[in-house]
Amino acid sequence: MERTSLTVVALLVCLSVAVVKGEDPYLFFEWNVTYGTISPLGVPLQGILINGQLPGPRINCTSNNNIVVNVFNHLDEPLLLTWNGVQQRKNSWQDGTPGTMCPIMPGTNFTYRFQVKDQIGSFFYFPTTDLHRAAGGFGGINVHSRALIPVPFDNPADEYNVFVGDWYNKGYKSLKKILDGGRTIGRPDGIHINGKSSKVGDKVVESLFTIEAGKTYRYRFCNVGMRTSVNVRFQGHPMKLVEMEGSHTMQNIYESLDLHVGQCFSVLVTADQEPKDYYMIVSSRFLKQAYLSSVAIIRYANGNGPASSDLPTPPPENTEGIAWSINQFRSFRWNLTASAARPNPQGSYHYGQINITRTFKIVNSRSEVDGKLRFALNGISHTDADTPFKLAEYFGATEKFFKYDLMADEFQTDLNKVTVAPNIKNGTFRNFVEIIFENREKTIQTYHLDGYSFFAVAIEPGMWSPEKRKNYNLVDAINRHSIQVYPKSWAAVMTTLDNAGLWNLRSEMWERFYLGQQLYFSVLSPARSLRDEYNLPDNHPLCGVVKGMPMPSPYKA
Fold this sequence. Notes:
mainly beta; 7-stranded mixed beta sheet; 5 helices; 33 strands
């Protein structure tokens, strides 16, 4: 009762301050992170729940809202949550990665405070500490457009979050021991849909969602898995793609869509078939010698009849399947006339006319170091330190933990020669950069960049070379925060490093992330001004060597 009263008082105080200062609205959340027994594939194991739920509570907000989340850690291990796709403008202090924040220790709490500044779209949160991602702890972040900004489709009758991904039955602590022992966790055991799984013909009484004939619904899909790309499709109902990771898309119709690890998109589906049950199908992609799938029931209200066992055909696999998926990627186009978070059309930003000031060519690799499995980018396999790198920068203590730019801008060394060390790249503030991801391995990759969105201008098979730039889409590539890289292929993205802070560029395949396939871009404003970056928050915990050090001079306006 006391906690509730204090929360109400804090809410009233902050709302009154917001009115006085003309701030954007505040939304308050209180989350208790606990263990609980879950059975996504029918095998009970220890999972991570938020307020007793999996998926966790949804953050349903509007562009520019201020989000305040008080997280109580009831686990027996340190915890961090990241907000995948939220750019945290000027505020990497809230990003929730081990390189930017001290963890929330067991039995304590921390209050995240951030703004979804100039963003709309479908995102999700999840834990970044250890192998917690394999235990759940995920949920949705739905950012809506402000009332005065038109959306390029009619309001749906309702909208649903759908979290899909692979799942392991070993439990996250067992998986962590396997990786710490230098071995791979191998293939997953199955696919879940919102933390549950079913097969065709199962006597499923409960539907995932109930729909009404004649109405249109928005489904926000996110792949929250550990390593597996999936394909999603509805039985008898085509999908209209309308949004992808914060960008309005050209509204093409698809029978099925590939969704890679860490990625999100929104589709509209109209209930225009015979009223009965239908299957939503999620199946694995590009898993060698394995095909995993799960289904869920979409039920018409007042419908009569079970779902048919005749499922839509999945897309092809192997080389043909990669070509199919690349062609689908090329069909995704930015809606140039639609407004996003701001009133001006998306297409008013002509990224293709900006000169590239720096190119990073990044090659991923898999190898062994001292007999143990490691993953690397350009020969550097990242490792974290006891003191978050962002805090070390802020307190002027970087020389104790890392050297900048150990990794070359372009790959130059033997793939089998790997250095295990913190991988921190200097990024020049406001530079317009090109990042090339080259995948020489036989498995698909997915990358995500915190703090930014980028233009996904090309994916092609083979090796990248400068003359490949003539094939870039410099007009209407999707502005997003993640990109897949197919086996023996490359991908190119472009962005402006205009968000000061320390930002994680990572593999979304969590085994690879955990064993080093990541780096941080350090983007510092020479002005040291509050116009470019916020100061260390007052409630931010200190750990490592900076604990007890005198506070640096704060940034000024």
